[in-house]
Specification:
Layout (H helix, E strand, L loop, with lengths): L1 H13 L11 E9 L2 E3 L2 E4 L2 E10 L2 E10 L7 E9 L4 E10 L18 E10 L4 E10 L12 E11 L2 E10 L5 E7 L5 E8 L6 E15 L2 E12 L4 E12 L1
Antiparallel strand pairs: 1-4, 1-16, 2-3, 4-5, 5-6, 6-7, 7-8, 8-9, 9-10, 10-11, 11-14, 12-13, 14-15, 15-16
């Protein structure tokens, strides 16, 4: 069933390309270095490298993204994204999200329901010069509530760009409309003694604002590369946490 869904989504994404075979395929790559890795409002690592590579043909694209932390304990990630961006601003896509953890012992090619660390996610959004609105919903894989039922974890994000003081700014807010996937983690005291457990969630245990951020960016030109440098104030109202982070991206012309 999942394979059929993916094939249908891929077919829909490729339909607008009929008759466009004369156009060239474009390829680009970039690498971002972060002082702290925060994914959709959730702190998941320290200093890390995030490579990204994309093949696009008109509006259709295939994208690979990864994350590798400098700390041995950091979780490694590999995401595969396919989709289509329409000329009028609408975009649709589907992603295969994967994280290494103790469940799969680092096995990537493990797609058994209940054991896999892969998650399939659908995405739809709209972008224009004034805002970017995106919605994501997980529909298969490692996406369960603490009671074992499918969570369909959903994340909705609104980003508004603007210019001020010679810098490119982006104000972002995001929320989840319902309880997301979650699990239990063991609590320890200062001596390492087990003192109980707590529930944790990808996003939240119900409707909540999970991200509020403000980013300032400056694009530096260096020979054959662009070097966007940014600082960001990132807060998660649900977790009552905040962080100030920085990053730099190397983009080939």
């Amino acid at each position: 069933m999942i394979r059929k869904i993916c094939l249908v989504l891929l077919f829909v994404c490729m339909m607008p390309l009929t008759g466009m075979a004369q156009n060239k395929v474009e390829a680009n790559f970039e690498v971002t270095m972060l002082s702290k890795y925060i994914w959709r409002g959730l702190p998941v690592g320290g200093v890390s490298l995030q490579p990204s590579a994309t093949l696009s043909w008109k509006g259709a694209y295939v994208n690979l993204e990864g994350n590798k932390g400098f700390n041995k304990e950091d979780i490694e990630e590999l995401d595969v994204n396919i989709g289509y961006k329409f000329p009028f601003g609408l975009n649709i896509g589907v992603s295969d999200l994967w994280q290494s953890d103790s469940k799969n012992l680092g096995q990537y090619f493990l797609y058994k329901e209940g054991d896999t660390s892969h998650t399939f996610e659908g995405n739809i959004g709209f972008s224009c010069r004034y805002f970017d609105l995106q919605a994501y919903c997980m529909f298969w894989g490692d996406d369960y509530k603490t009671d074992g039922t499918r969570a369909y974890s959903t994340y909705i994000e609104l980003a508004v760009p603007f210019k001020l003081g010679g810098l490119e700014w982006t104000a972002t807010a995001a929320m989840t409309p319902m309880e997301s996937a979650g699990g239990y983690s063991t609590l320890y005291d200062e001596d390492g003694k087990d003192i109980g457990w707590e529930r944790n969630f990808i996003y939240a245990d119900g409707p909540a604002c999970v991200l509020a951020s403000l980013r300032a960016e400056k694009n530096l030109h260096c020979k054959k590369f662009d070097l966007p440098v940014f600082v960001e104030l990132n807060a998660n109202p649900y977790l009552k946490k905040a962080a100030f982070l920085a990053g730099v991206t190397i983009k080939a012309f």
